[in-house]
Design goal:
CATH topology of the largest domain: D-Maltodextrin-Binding Protein, domain 2
Helix content: 40-55%
CATH class of the largest domain: Alpha Beta
Order of helices and strands: HHEHEHEHHHEEEHEHHEHEHEEHHEHHEH
Distance between the termini: 31 Å
Structural class: alpha/beta
CATH superfamily of the largest domain: Periplasmic binding protein-like II
Length: 359
């Protein structure tokens, strides 16, 4: 089902080991000191601890523009001059859409450790188009419910029904990303993401509007994360491990859960922009991001920690425990990959979300 990118865009506003890991590639390819690599991606690709070792090894500067929606990012790339962008960090479920738009370059599978990628997230159906590889998965995680365990009852947080529990009036923060929250509400109603249709959207909207009285904060990622950290909210709908893992050292009471109705898992992927004039360098960067050393740093990024796609990611036992490494299979089994909709349904969701914000 083709995604309505135009409507979505309109609606949304330790160096040593890493250097050793990429030393062979560095000898094979060199970049001048003034070389730049332009990346557009989610905020977790911006961490200097992630990019610094690559920049040092290749004597290159990585320039990054962040997005919170790959649809918006696609529009930016389409409206830019050829060669302006080199690497596109996107959502796996939209890779085929980007390929259809001519935005991604074909990759050589032999360049990447595909055999080391967790099979549940390799998703050849998403990353290969007509038998050709166009992007590789890098990190994944869950958009479910985050909460303060000292201020929320354990029996309540087990279900999405907590969002309508009058006990928590004014104590819920909601991520201002309509697709995600509509899907969470759908799960509360027993609807998988791909089961939401024009026929039942009115029922989903009614349930969404009924939740508004409990909502105290609606905002972007930084806003809802801050609300949870400061106590302005005790529950974040649409949040997950990426909301709390960077905050737990200061406040161990912050936690996240995959409710009994299931979760939504996101899968981020990275590819090379078709019009890039620096495809060799871009390819080295993607190889670094997917390699064991890069994956360890990617997983522990400062924007929001996430599970690495590479099973051999270099992580300590403590870091794996923080990411709930041993529970990933169970969480994936109980979750649905995020889903995008056709233009008619997408526009209807945007209208429903606007009514929710104004309610």
């Amino acid at each position: 089902m083709k995604t309505s990118l135009a409507s979505r865009g309109a609606a949304l506003r330790a160096t040593g080991p890493v250097l050793a890991a990429i030393a062979v590639s560095a000898f094979a390819f060199t970049a001048s000191a003034t070389e730049d690599l332009n990346v557009i991606g989610w905020c977790d690709i911006t961490d200097p601890e992630l990019n610094g070792p690559f920049e040092d090894a290749f004597d290159v500067r990585i320039n990054i523009k962040t997005h919170e929606d790959p649809a918006v990012a696609q529009t930016i790339i389409e409206q830019s001059a050829p060669g302006d962008w080199d690497v596109f960090h996107t959502d796996a479920t939209l890779v085929a859409t980007h390929v259809e738009a001519g935005l991604l370059a074909e990759l050589d599978p032999a360049d990447f450790p595909l055999d080391d990628i967790f099979p549940q997230v390799l998703r050849r159906d998403l990353h290969f188009v007509d038998g050709k590889l166009y992007a590789v998965p890098d990190v994944f995680g869950w958009n479910t419910v985050a909460y303060n365990s000292e201020r929320v009852d354990a029996e309540d947080i087990a279900s999405y029904d907590i969002a309508w529990n009058p006990k928590y009036e004014g104590r819920i923060a909601v991520w201002d990303f309509y697709v995600q929250i509509v899907q969470n509400v759908g799960l509360a109603m027993g609807l998988a993401p791909d089961e939401i249709t024009m026929d039942n959207l009115a029922d989903v909207e009614a349930r969404l509007l009924a939740m508004k009285q409990n909502v105290g904060v609606i905002g972007d990622i930084a806003t809802i994360q801050t609300a949870l950290a400061t106590g302005d909210a005790d529950i974040v709908l649409g949040g997950g491990q990426w909301i709390v893992t960077g905050l737990q050292e200061e406040n161990p009471a912050l936690d996240w859960i995959v409710p009994e109705e299931g979760g939504i898992f996101y899968l981020e992927s990275v590819g090379i922009v078709a019009s890039s004039e620096k495809k060799e360098l871009a390819n080295e960067y993607v190889k670094y991001l997917i390699g064991a050393a890069g994956q360890g740093r990617f997983a522990m990024n400062s924007c929001g920690m996430a599970m690495p796609a590479n099973s051999k990611a270099e992580l300590t036992d403590e870091e794996r425990a923080l990411l709930r490494w041993d529970l990933k299979d169970a969480f994936l089994e109980d979750s649905y990959i995020n889903h995008y909709y056709d233009q008619e349904l997408d526009m209807a969701m945007i209208d429903a979300w606007a009514r929710f914000l104004q309610h």
